[in-house]
């Protein structure tokens, strides 16, 4: 198979250098506004929450402030829970699900937990509907102390003081048709590797931490979400995206080893959500609602076990 068959940049079998990355970046265009669609929504939350800027990224002429939303009355006696969205900026319901949670449901946890919510970790990715950042780095493989991704490094620094105190972390994602049509081919080309077989699961699923699995926690989330949208079935080999299904709608990854956002703290309860917005059986609002249902179920289960 020629490289041209699955991605138009690079030479088959050879990882990208600076020239190829520059060619890739030159093809990226802004498709929506982080300020209009996200920052304005965050600004509306300032009456009920503490909103802080925890970083600022400059890419060319574009400046992206990074925002964290916290409980206004932070109480050291309460458990702390972390919600992150938009680590992959193109995964829309991760961002807007987090915002919807803050607007509609977060108040119900005010006297039960300290909330730290980061609705959009990767603003450039949000605007350009991209998985990577402008340096062709996947932030969700880069959560570590010496991270090469500015987005990941900023979130790492924000959460460091809470790393040992966090009870629960839910990271909101999507699996989309463009994972197969665009992002996996780009990854194979960037790394100079063959393009492996793909396949997109139709429905919601979760990724647990294989090194510290919490099966009851995952199943509590699945039970809540299936009232909102359908759960992805296993394929004929008992897999979802190439990983064994360990419980209905649940697969496992070693999250810290892979540098995933879900491994950024030492929380007992961690999960990564994956909704499927391209399904004919789901609407964008259902995807946002599924993320909100997942957040609420995750917090409720974690607090019940604390």
From TrEMBL:
Pfam family, one: AstE_AspA_cat
A GO term, aspect molecular function: hydrolase activity, acting on ester bonds
GO aspect biological process, one term: proteolysis
Keywords linked to the UniProt accession: Hydrolase, Metal-binding, Zinc
Domain Peptidase M14: 30-306
Cofactors (names): Zn(2+)
Domain of life the protein comes from: Bacteria
Protein's UniProt keywords contain Cytoplasm: no
Xref: InterPro entries: AstE_AspA_cat, Peptidase_M14
SUPFAM superfamilies found in the cross-reference section: Zn-dependent exopeptidases
UniProt keyword Zinc, yes or no: yes
Family: Belongs to the peptidase M14 family.
Protein name, as recorded: Putative deacylase
């Amino acid at each position: 198979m020629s490289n041209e068959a699955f991605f138009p940049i690079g030479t088959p079998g050879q990882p990208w250098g600076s020239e190829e990355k520059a060619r890739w970046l030159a093809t990226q265009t802004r498709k929506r506004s982080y300020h209009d669609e996200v920052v304005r929504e965050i600004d509306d939350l300032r009456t009920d929450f503490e909103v802080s800027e925890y970083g600022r990224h400059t890419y060319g002429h574009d400046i992206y402030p990074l925002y964290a939303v916290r409980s206004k009355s932070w109480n050291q006696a309460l458990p702390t829970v972390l919600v992150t969205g938009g680590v992959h900026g193109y995964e829309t319901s991760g961002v807007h699900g987090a915002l919807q949670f803050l607007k509609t449901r977060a108040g119900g946890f005010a006297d039960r937990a300290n909330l730290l919510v980061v609705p959009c970790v990767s603003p450039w990715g949000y605007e350009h509907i991209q998985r990577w950042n402008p340096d062709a780095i996947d932030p969700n493989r880069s959560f570590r102390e010496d991270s090469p991704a500015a987005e990941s490094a900023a979130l790492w620094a924000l959460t460091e003081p809470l790393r040992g105190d966090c009870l629960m972390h839910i990271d909101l994602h999507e699996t989309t048709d463009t994972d197969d049509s665009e992002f996996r081919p780009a990854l194979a080309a960037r790394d100079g590797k063959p393009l492996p077989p793909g396949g997109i699961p139709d429905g919601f699923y979760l990724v647990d931490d294989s090194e510290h699995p919490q099966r009851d926690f995952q199943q509590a989330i699945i039970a809540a979400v299936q009232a909102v949208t359908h759960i992805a079935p296993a394929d004929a080999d008992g897999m979802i995206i190439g990983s064994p299904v360990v419980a209905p709608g649940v697969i496992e990854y070693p999250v810290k080893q892979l540098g995933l956002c879900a491994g950024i703290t030492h929380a007992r309860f961690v999960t990564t959500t994956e909704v499927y917005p391209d399904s004919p059986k789901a609407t964008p609002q259902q995807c946002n609602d599924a993320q909100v249902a997942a957040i609420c179920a995750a917090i409720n289960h974690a607090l019940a076990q604390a």
